[in-house]
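Per reviewer request, we include the raw input and output of the structure prediction for the construct analysed in the revised manuscript.
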Amino acid sequence: MSIFVDETTRVVVQGLTGARVVFTACANRAYGTKVVAGVTPGKGGQDVEGIPIFDSVAEAVAATGANASFIAVPPRAAPGAIIDAAAAGIGVVVCITEHDPVEGRGARERPAPP
């Protein structure tokens, strides 16, 4: 079994300004996960529970060295969020969303480009 996340993993949370996501991110941080940034377009410059918010994943990676993404956005925003993470060089992406349709998943279930 491969280990994708360890003590050196630095996580950016896409969709961090949503109430349920704040709870989840803070719980993960309390467990020991290094949650170093959040991304919500249009809300850059804010912070949530001491976690800085950026407008894009690329900005968050440049500022914090994030190397993994936890995506918790509405279904219609999930494909774009996954692409943004991959384009920013994030190698490990975990995406949870309600009612994610099975159709179209194949386009998102490929390894991130090198």
